[in-house]
Amino acid sequence: MGAVSVKEWMQNVIKPEQIEKYKDNGKDFINEAHINELLLKKCQPEKQEIRDIMAKSLNLERLEPEETAALLNCTDEDLWQEMYQTGLQIKQKVYGRRIVTFAPLYISNYCVNSCVYCGFRGNNDQSIRQHLTMDELREEIKALVQKGHKRLIMVYGEHPKSDAHYIAETLKVAYSTKVGHGEIRRSNVNAAPMSIEDLEILRDVGIGTFQVFQETYHHSTYKKLHPRGIKADYGWRLYALHRAMDAGVDDVGIGALFGLYDWKFEVLGLLFHTIDLEKKFAGVGPHTISFPRLEPAVNTPFIENNSYKIDDETFKKLVTVIRLSVPYTGMILTARENPSIRQDVIQVGCTQIDAGANIAIGGYSKGSVDYERQQFILGDNRSLDEAIRDLAKLGYITSFCTAGYRCGRTGNYFMEIAKKGKVHHLCMPNAILTFKEYLLDYASPETIEVGEKLIQNEFEALPNDLVKKQVTEFLRRIEAGERDLFL
Ligand code: SF4
Predict the structure, then answer these.
(1) Is 139 helix (H, G, I), strand (E, B) or coil?
(2) What does each C-alpha distance from 81 to 76, 97, 176, 313, 321 come to in angstroms?
């Protein structure tokens, strides 16, 4: 496609009426004066107030912004220790000792935008551009399936080369490529905001969760960091997931890129985003929240000179406050972080991680790391097998389960059971079954040894004899060669 037609394409992407219809009295849900006022008002929270808020979170109730502001402003280190504990307790209560694992798959890095922090920005002439053909994509999928992956997050830059029709084709390839027992059972998508009509195309081919991260909720910072392209429109991005819900894609993922602006403001931005989705879609908020931290990227000087950098301690705090604020929402921790931070932060309430990640376009089938084809530089380069083994040593079972989505346990249904703390009644048995498949088909002898012990422990802890009986039967059938059995 030539330069002129790219320009024409860009002029037709944004549909102003699909922004305006979601606003209240012409205003979006990020009221900066109100957020700043909350942070100021709650600048010295009392000990008892913090403990009362923790009790509310533990009761699996979403916090109000004023309560989240109080947590964000806590300066008592002993109370932070209590909050870390509470974060873990909430996670155990809702999700059990289970971590869902997925692989990121970068499909195309052509991009019409120029986000100053991103290695893929259109004006980065040191980024090597690539756009997978369906044959190349098939090779990537095969390489991932052969490692044991069942879930993907497929990532695309914003460009006519990766429009909704292209994304739909790639989803079909992801679902139809099989290797032996292996297959991709769930493909989530991280792509540019789309119109309701385009999202309906993706709904029809079985898109998993649709993720769009606002990056920063602060209007003027957003404007400064996204100077050109479609992404310069804050409102088009802010309501991307409202449109997804209207298109019938009822699992959506929000996120902020921490390190672009004040972290306390961004946490409240995420909470207001959750509240607006819940308000407008009958109580169904985001399925997941992501909180990537800004990482170095090739030829991207903005990152070195940026003053909002988040240190490890603050990172752990912000993850904890998100956990406490939306106790029933999935939280995704990515391989941007190094293994020791990941192990630490998992303990305050994360529910999903990527593992064995290679974020270079075409990187899995080539088996190499290629910084010129990456959006940023990864902190965790462990293989899937190593990551799973480390989690197992911590007592976490890796789940490749995708049963919930395929049985329609999404959107409203999922939120209902999550809010009642009942997800793990089905999910832990299914985690055991998919983990068993992984151990049989892909694991190293060391991982098998740790993993089998873990399965035994988790089996003993299952809620009742009926479930145990069914799991025993399914384990027997899996050992005999059957796959994809779930409760
Ligand atoms: S962050 Fe996304 S939209 Fe922005 S330049 Fe990078 S790939 Fe493009």
Answers:
(1) helix
(2) 9, 20, 47, 12, 12
Other residues' Cβ atoms within 10 Å of the Cβ of residue 283: 12
Q: Nearest to residue 348, comparing CAs of 71, 97, 87, 98?
A: 87
pLDDT at 335 over 90: no
| pLDDT digits 0-9 by tens, 426-456 | 788 999 999 999 999 999 999 999 999 999 9
pLDDT exceeds 60 at position 178: yes
Q: Which CATH number fits domain 3-24+90-417: 3.40.50.150, 3.40.50.1970, 3.30.70.250, 3.20.20.70?
A: 3.20.20.70
The CA distance from 235 to 273, in Å, is 12
How does the average pLDDT of the chain come out, rounded? 91
Q: Do 144 and 364 touch, CB atoms closer than 8 A? A: yes
Confidence band (pLDDT; 50, 70, 90) for 391? very high
Q: Find the mean pLDDT for residues 44-66.
A: 96
Name the pairing type of β-strands 252-255 and 98-108. unpaired
Q: Where in the chain is the domain with CATH 3.20.20.70?
A: 3-24+90-417
In this prediction, residues 398-416 reach a mean pLDDT of 67
- Ligand 1 neighbourhood includes 215 CB (under 6 angstroms): no
Find where tokens 């052509």 sit.
110
To test the pocket of ligand 1, the residue of 118, 162, 233, 359 to mutate (highest count of ligand atoms within 8 Å of its CB) is: 118
Structure tokens at 246: 């209207």
What's the rounded Cα separation, in Å, for the pair 263 and 417? 30
C-alpha closest to that of 428 among 150, 96, 80: 96
**Would you say the CB of residue 111 lies under 6 angstroms from ligand 1?**
yes
Smallest CA-to-CA distance from 104 within 323, 408, 335, 258 is with: 335
- Probe ligand 1: pick from 158, 189, 302, max atoms within 8 Å of CB? 158
Please tell me the predicted confidence (pLDDT) of residue 375. Answer: 66
Residue 292 has pLDDT above 60, yes or no: yes
Point out the ligand 1 atom lying closest to the alpha carbon of residue 120: 6
SS3 at position 155 = strand
Looking from the CA of residue 231, the nearest atom of ligand 1 is: 3
Q: What is the pTM of this model?
A: 0.93
Place of tokens 């119109």: 195
Secondary structure letter of residue 115 according to DSSP: -
- Residue 154 CA, chain-centre distance (Å), reads 11
